[in-house]
UniProtKB/TrEMBL annotation:
Name this polypeptide is given: CRAL-TRIO domain-containing protein
Disordered: region residues: 1-21, 346-374
One Gene Ontology MF term: phosphatidylinositol bisphosphate binding
Stored Gene3D superfamilies: CRAL-TRIO lipid binding domain, N-terminal domain of phosphatidylinositol transfer protein sec14p
Biased composition (Low complexity): 11-21, 349-360
GO CC annotation, single: membrane
Length: 374
């Protein structure tokens, strides 16, 4: 009986210890369940061209299982940082509220390395904060003449974004480059100086990044990347001298770092067209800011026709060749029309990847050779 009494006395202690150790685990399970539910709420059906399924697997190792698991892990890491109230946690909370299509860009550009994806995402948010906090006099703008711009509040109908589009300071084309990438055209001119004075250098750059973000949300663009074309043929000496100011060079270095290691899109090529002699110093400085990978993708060409090696002439605006824009309306198409054209081209060859037995969205189907290797 003494032994029985001893066991009875020990039982509550063991139970207490068990409950003490399992309670935190239960809380963690509850938190994990909440995160999983949150992830499902942000999921959406994403249809992609079936022709890219094999390419996604070969280049990124992407399967639907890998994508779902990596997104869940990324959301879990973001939620942990938010709970810990790390520096910039408010931006991380906003990122956590974004749909999967927004977050998966960082995973795809980092070949599903979640640690690098999280680093790139935080670098993007840090750059946005930096741009929001740039002094009004950056680039020579008059103090007090610039309205505050927040990246999270920007959308395609925002006044600063419309200002950039209406003056065609940034444009795209109603088609893709020869390698399948989307195309961004930047045309620096004296209008840039006016835009910097009106929007501020930070606000202008945020508007440009928001438009590039709109392009990067296309599944095909997330895989094939973006070709960036900077047309310097109309760049004035005043614009170049302003760009060589120390504060502008610091911004240029930050942007080069974004393109090199923190971008939410793959940079397939960087073309600088028609740089005048007085812009050579700036071009050489920009080259030093670029990573070795980006330098290998940098193309300097004196004639606009040289760009035809990367982008078909019929897609380009007038001024990039005798027939520029003749077939596709590239000279007149608006940014929105170009986005719709890209979506129409994709939808014509798009295959739904939704499983009939599951309500969860899939992005890339597992390639056949992975299912039954031969």
């Amino acid at each position: 009986m003494g032994c029985s009494s001893s066991r009875d006395a020990e039982t509550p202690t063991a139970t207490t210890r068990a409950s003490a150790t399992t309670l935190p685990c239960s809380e963690r399970c509850i938190n994990d369940s909440k995160r999983t539910a949150r992830s499902r709420r942000h999921s959406r059906r994403i249809d992609v061209p079936s022709s890219l399924t094999l390419r996604a697997y070969e280049e990124l190792g992407e399967t639907s299982e890998l994508r779902a698991g990596s997104l869940q892990q990324l959301r879990s890491e973001l939620a942990t940082l938010v709970e810990q109230r790390v520096a910039g946690w408010e931006d991380l909370q906003r990122a956590l509220e974004q749909p999967d299509l927004w977050l998966v860009r960082f995973l795809r550009t980092r070949k599903y390395d979640s640690a690098r994806a999280l680093h790139a995402l935080r670098g993007n948010l840090s750059l946005s904060r930096y741009l929001e906090g740039l002094p009004a006099r950056t680039g020579g703008a008059k103090p007090g003449a610039v309205a505050a711009v927040r990246f999270w509040d920007l959308h395609i109908e925002d006044s600063s974004v419309r200002y950039v589009l209406d003056r065609r300071l940034l444009a795209t084309v109603p088609g893709r480059a020869r390698d399948g990438s989307a195309v961004v055209l930047l045309s620096p001119s004296s209008d840039f100086l006016v835009a910097w004075g009106r929007l501020g250098v930070g606000g202008f750059t945020l508007a440009v990044l928001k438009l590039i973000e709109a392009l990067s949300l296309e599944p095909r663009t997330q895989l094939c990347g973006i070709t960036v074309v900077v047309d310097l043929r109309r760049a004035s000496s005043a614009l170049i001298s302003t760009s060589l100011r120390p504060d502008m060079l610091r911004l240029t270095e930050r942007l080069a770092s974004l393109l090199g290691s923190k971008a939410a899109f793959r940079v397939r090529g960087l073309w600088i067209v028609g740089a005048p002699w007085y812009a050579r110093a700036l071009v050489n400085l920009v080259r030093t800011f670029l990573s070795s990978k980006l330098r290998s993708r940098l193309h300097l060409c004196s004639a606009a026709e040289d760009l035809h090696a990367a982008v078909e002439e019929r897609l380009l605006p007038a001024g990039f060749g005798a027939g520029g824009g003749a077939d596709e309306g590239g000279a007149e198409a608006s940014f929105e029309e170009c986005l719709l054209a890209l979506q129409r081209r994709e939808s014509s060859t798009r295959t739904s990847l939704r499983s009939s037995s599951s309500s969860e969205p899939l992005v890339w189907q597992r390639p056949r050779h992975e299912l039954s290797p031969t």
